[in-house]
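Question (not urgent): is this output format expected?
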Amino acid sequence: MRQLLLIIFLLPMLLYSQKNSVTKIDSVNYYIDLVKFNKSNNNYRNCLDYSQKALDFAKKSKIQKAIADSYSNIGSVYLDLKKYDDAIDVFVKSVAIYSTLPSTSQQAITHYNLGVCYIKKNNFESAENNFDTANAIYKKLNISSADEMIKLQKAIIFKEKKRIDLAIPLFESIINKKDPNDTYKTKAEALYHIGKIEYSKKRYNLATNYFNRALVSNKDDLEQRSKIILALSNVYERIANIEKSHYLLKQYLQLKDSLTLINNRKIGVEDFASFKESEKLKLIEQIDKENKSQQKANTFAKLISILAIALISILSLLSLSLYKNNILRTQSNILLKEKNIELETAKENAEKASKARAEFLSTVSHELRTPLNAINGITHLLIEENPKDSQINYLNSLKFSGNYLLHFINDILEINRIESENVPIEKINCNLKSLLISIQNSFREISQENNNTFILDIDSSIPENLICDPTKLSQIFLNLVNNSLKFTKNGYVKLTAKLENVEDRNLLISFKVADNGIGIPEDKQDTIFDSFSQGSIEINRKYGGTGLGLAIVKRLIELLGGSIYLNSKVGLGTTFSFNLPFEVGETIVVTKKENTFDEKAIVNKKILLVEDNKINQMITKKMLENKGMICQIVDNGEESVSILKLENDFDLILMDVHLPGINGTIATQQIREFNITTPIIALTAISLNENREMLLSYGMNDVITKPFEPEKFYEVIADNLV
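Got this back:
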């Protein structure tokens, strides 16, 4: 009986809630219908008013789809009025909300309209991305009616990018499709653009044919008709048919006047300014409300302060009775101050020692690179010169040792750079899923060496493109996965990425790298993230490594705004987990192609090598000549500037940064004063205070780090010779 009464009591409330939600959506649709009605009557002032009312009502209802539809509706009005910047602003807000909702045709239309706006602003990359997204949504919803529209816009983008070979087939497929109604008016537009292509190739008869066909296909689109007539006028002028050209030009001017009159009737400049001003006033009103709320909070804070002062006064009176105790406390404070001074002194000494250690390690790692470049370079040259079979193993061992020492030096330099806080954080578009898949592929051979399985588990709800620092993310995952694979045999390593929280365009993603390897003893877990720590001497001897990987990982994660946690048991495995914040990107990230170079592109190229070290001169020259390049050597920066003033036939310059006299950066600056075309590549053992961006700012085109890998060395040279 009690349950029945409870149902009877709650049922009206549930019905009211559902009815209220439906009413809110219907009200938004009602205003949008009014917008469509006023569009048909060319009354865009009312369109803007009703569009804003729909948005205001949607925001009050807090229904995300209604808000997204309202923004999309306002954007379409701005698009009709050719207010492309305003349209882009609201379309971006709309697609951001749609991305969190199930796919709809309105979402696809919004991406399509956004692409049209980007074409008008000559932002073809963003336009193409939005058309691809719209096309994907239409295919997902099994809607084919928009294929011709999207195909036309893609063809226009290819035409604007000078990819005529890709544009013409798309235009021709639109023209040849049997569609007597031509619902989306695509044929006339396709014919017009092919005519423009033929006109640019000076094939005026063909251009005339396409423009005339476009004019016949044109229905009632006056703006399209006007540009076709203008194009025809220009063609007839080119073929010296001045009478026909002037006749068409007169028609174009009449149409242009009609279009201007029609556009002016849509909404006046003052009406649009008035509407935008009303939007600003609403924003100011909202800020004013927030200020008033803040004033109330300040008033309350003042009241609390007054009460606190009163309480302090009472406590001060009570403290008089503790006078004797205060004397003892004062004496204790004196002792504490003395101890604090000692601690401050000890802290300063520790900081000085830490700084000195960092500078020493940086200097050592930097200075080691020059002889190490000689070791690796000579080893590479010897291997390439067909050594005896008995010497191959020795040379491969020497190459392995050189690479191991290089990785060790790089780890030292990286930990110093992080501890010195000399690490900028990039915020660029990154495809997280592609990055993780690339890491999985890169560890395929290593995982097979110990008979391990590397599993990748990525949450499907994580967006394709995020704003992040892909270099540091790669460094984190590479260190953690490599660490797990090294300490696991006949087992598995699993990398998991899961979306934890979404707020507007801000995301929180959790990551885990788990294995069933040897595990970490409990007494070593507190120090495992310290520099040069690897659990024990036995582990270091058995598995190798520098003990810097986890220290680098911890500092990089903290730089990116997260914290790392460890869960491990001996014999059962280890799990590293951490959360990182991200922002949703606005464009689809293009995956970088694998590094390759064309050896034919570098043959017989004349290279100027600016290097003071004789061994490096010999190695670098030999490596260049092995690939068919011509090398000329100078010892210092001053001589490089002088020779380039006299000779201007060098295809590329390899510039050592640390030179006697003027260094490589100053020499590059002086060369750029009279030569801005010849590529200059920096050769440097990058130290703690150097970075790629700093070197490029002096006018260098690229950077090769010593000791350099031969393939990377040739690849960078080839890229800059293209």
